[in-house]
Each structure stands twice: as C-alpha cells, then as structure tokens.
Write a structure and sequence with these properties.
Blueprint (H helix, E strand, L loop, with lengths): L1 H14 L14 E5 L6 H17 L3 E5 L6 H8 L7 E6 H9 L7 H4 E16 L8 H10 L5 E4 L5 H13 L4 E4 L3 H9 L5 E5 H9 L4 E5 L24 E9 L4 H15 L2 H9 L2 E3 L4 H22 L5
Parallel strand pairs: 1-2, 1-3, 5-6, 5-7
Antiparallel strand pairs: 3-9, 4-7, 4-8, 4-9, 4-10
Helix pairs in contact: 2-10, 4-12, 7-12
Length: about 325
C-alpha cells in the first residue's frame, strides 16, 4: 500500500498538467512561421506584429522563414506542431488557393489548422521590365496575343497570389503567357528586374517604389478601384472588365490550440493592427488593416477557398 501511495504521489502532478492557458500564455518564446521568403509582404508584416506582440507580452515572438513548394513546407510544419499556441503560421490566399490547386498536400487547411486573426490586405501591381514594348495593359495584351507562348510572368511559387493573379489575367484577357515560378517573391522580383522574365504581378507594398525609380514599368493595379498609393495608375479592370486580384494575410494555429489562447492572440493582434502608428504606416504602403474574430475569419477562409477553386477551374491552372 505504501508503494502504491508513493506512485500516486508521483503521478498526480503529471495528471494536473494542462495545455497552455491564456492565464499564463505566453510564458516562453513563440515561434511565428512565415512560409515565404524574406522581404515579401508576409515577412514584412509578420515582423511588425512580432515586434509589437513581444513588447506587449514581454515574451519574444520569433520569426522563422520556411519558404518552398508554394508555402506547403512551412504550412505543413505548423500543422504538425504541438497545438499549444507556441507555433503560429502567417499565411495568405496562397493557402486557400492551394486547397484546390494542390489537392495532394500533406495537410488540409481547415482540418489541420484553425483561424486566429486576419492582418491586412492590399492590391497587387502589374509591372514589366523596361525592355518590354508595352506602356499599357491594352498594349501588353496585344503583344501577348501577337506572340502567344513567348511572353512569361514570374511568381513566388504555385498557388501564391502572384501566380493566381497571372492565371486569372490570362483567362480573362485571352492570352497565352508562360508561368515561371520561383522559390520566393524576392527571387521572382529579381528575375523581372534583371529582364529574365518580362512581367509580374507583385505586392504594391513592395514593388511600387521600384516602379517609381523606373527599375520596372508599372502598367496597372489589380483592385476594382485605383489605389490611393498610385492614383494616376489605371486598374487592370479598366482594360479587362471585372478583373480583381488582391493579397491578404492572416494568422493560423495548429488545430486543437486552446480556445482561450486563440482568443487572447486574436485580441492582441487586433490591438496591434489598430494602433494609429501601425495603421498610418501601412496605409502609406497601400496595406489596409483587416480585423476579424476567429469565427469571422473561418467564414472568410471558407469563402476564399471556394472563390479560388472557381478560378483554378476556369483558368485551367496547374502545378508544373
């Protein structure tokens, strides 16, 4: 009996161990996985969030870039991590597109991950290398139709907003342009800057400065309305009616993360993106803060998955 009681005494503390709770969370460093390359919008805005969250919680939110395979490598790593709130994913509509574009992934987005919070959204900008003899969307379409299959466009990988913006453009403009995928947005950008690839849809937050410096020629932005960041630049929709492609960012966690931790993170992230200095800085870059509850974000994700499934079907986009 004495041995039995001693065993109970040893096991009882273990039985009382519970998952992370918002009462004590975070009590150590939080890893924030960005499944895209350094320098792109997800990386840039993740670092803003990490800084402010670290300041508020007095615990470090550490960015880990894990690009590759159209964001699948980093996303899968988070999906398979312990659901305790100490590993988070910064994601975009790349992940919602991949649900239909790449069905044989090692994870399913809504099965293996759960929504935490949205971050922001922004238009893309369509740019060409200065050697391309097109100064407008109409001239680019005419050039692409004149030489089908000879023009190409860069992206940061299959399923990324840059890829799907290009596929949607091809489908709606009736052009045949070759997709040249890269590992990261910085690599794709450098290919266009170097003239190795003729065209790219890029985040307006990162490419507009290069366009203003005449490193590339901007043809249009991709929202339904002209961007306040480039008011003199037309939209693609002014030439290709109905065209719209944006990039949005959000945070997800492994399925099973405690609800109170998710609620704590949602409240903290929403507080950061509502800070006047954050909103002012982002608006100057063309990024609009996006505030949603976990439930609202879940509905948003499901609708976006459905939307891009239709685009993949209509465009015939495939992963090569």
């Amino acid at each position: 009996m004495r041995t039995f009681l001693r065993l109970i005494a040893l096991l009882l503390p273990l039985a009382c161990v519970t998952p992370a709770s918002a009462d004590t969370y975070p009590s150590r460093n939080v890893k924030v996985v960005v499944p895209f390359g350094a320098g792109g919008p997800a990386d840039v805005y993740a670092r803003v969030l990490a800084k402010y969250l670290s300041d508020e919680t007095k615990q470090s939110f550490v960015i880990e870039n894990r690009p590759g395979a159209g964001a699948i490598i980093g996303t899968d790593a988070v999906a398979k991590s312990t659901p305790d709130g100490y590993t988070l994913l910064v994601m975009s509509n790349t992940q919602t597109t991949n649900e239909s574009l790449i069905p044989n992934k090692p994870y399913e987005l809504m099965r293996d991950l759960m929504p935490v919070a949205t971050i922001n959204y922004s238009d893309l900008i369509m740019v060409v290398h200065p050697s391309v003899p097109a100064k407008s969307v109409a001239e680019f379409v005419a050039l692409a139709k004149k030489e089908p299959g000879k023009m190409n466009y860069a992206s940061s990988g299959p399923g990324t907003p840059y890829h799907m913006a290009g596929e949607l453009f091809k489908a709606m403009s009736g052009t045949d342009i070759v997709h040249i995928p890269h590992k990261a947005s910085g690599d794709a950008r450098n290919s266009v800057l170097g003239g190795n690839v003729q065209m790219m849809f890029d985040a307006i937050t990162t490419m507009s400065a290069l366009a203003k410096a005449d490193k590339v020629r901007a043809l249009a932005t991709t929202g339904l309305k002209r961007s306040p960041l480039t008011p003199d630049l037309p939209t693609v929709a002014e030439t290709v009616p109905g065209y719209e492609a944006t990039i949005w960012l959000g945070v997800m966690a492994p399925k099973g993360t405690p609800a109170d931790v998710v609620a704590y993170l949602n409240k903290s992230i929403n507080k950061v993106i509502d800070l006047p200095e954050v909103k002012e800085a982002w608006l100057k870059q063309g990024a609009i803060p996006l505030v949603k509850s976990p439930a609202e974000f879940e509905d948003y994700l499901n609708k976006d998955i459905k939307k891009w499934a239709e685009v993949v079907k209509v465009s015939g986009a495939k992963v090569r």
